[in-house]
Amino acid sequence: MIPMLLMGLCQGLFEWLPVSSEGMIATIYAFVSQKSYQESIQFALWLHLGTAPSAAIIFRKPLWRLASELTKSHRQYSPKLRFLIISTLISAPIGFGIYIGVDELTQLAGSLFMVFVGVAMLVTGLVQLRYRVLYNRSTSDLNFIDGIFAGIAQGISVIPGFSRSGMTISVLTLRGLDRGEVLALSYIMGMPVSLGAALWIGITQGFNWSLGALLSALIAFVIGLLTIKLLISVSTKINLGLFIIVMGLFIIAGGIFTNF
């Protein structure tokens, strides 16, 4: 019970930082609960049922505006809505295919998979350190190519250790978009795939209606709701690349240590 509650707290905090909440949650949960890495990844994905609704509440106004556009002709869709549709259609099949591969790999590699997660976090950290600050475009300039690149980045980030928000934000800033503008867009973009992943786990592995799992999701929802604005503000002002790299090195060391 206590490990699950701790994971709810961690999910509510890590989800809003570009640090790969899935990789962090899976690694911590595997360590404190002695569960397999495969089970830990599934539990990490399940916790999105807690933080996705909190994001929906915070971003309810832009979500409502986007939803209202769906009643119009597709020719009247805003660049932002077109971008979200394209990126979701691109990321869904990529993410699903990668998840199946990751699920099989965790069964074969066991705790050695932690090393892989650590390496992925090193890549995430390096990407964060190198993102471009200068910009010359806004979200009103979003186009088809932006949607494809962001969708690919989001699909790849299914791999534990790759930060979904970190990857998509970095791709869009490299495309010349303002980091402050694309931050909220990145979280809105992630809602369908996060909920889809959590529901897929429930459908294929069985929904976990245990008291511990439900309380964990509830804690993730409450903490996420309370901290989202603060942590998003922090992530716009502080580059967490070095922190992610250090955490990646610790995870690599832990994965190696547990196998010797």
Short description:
The chain is 77% helix and 0% strand. The protein is mainly alpha-helical and 260 residues long. It has one domain.
Task: Walk me through this protein's architecture.
With 260 residues, the protein is mostly helical. It has one domain (2-257). The protein is 77% helix and 0% strand. It has 12 helices and no strands. Helix 4 packs antiparallel against helix 10 (179-205), helix 4 packs across helix 11 (211-237) and helix 6 packs across helix 10. The longest helix has 31 residues, at 79-109. The chain starts with a helix and ends with a helix. The mean pLDDT is 84.
Give the topology.
Elements: H1 2-14, H2 21-33, H3 37-46, H4 48-58, H5 60-69, H6 79-109, H7 113-130, H8 144-156, H9 164-174, H10 179-205, H11 211-237, H12 241-257
Features:
260 residues; mainly alpha
Strand content: under 5%
Count of individual helical segments: 12
The separation of the N and C termini measures: 29 Å
Helix content: over 70%
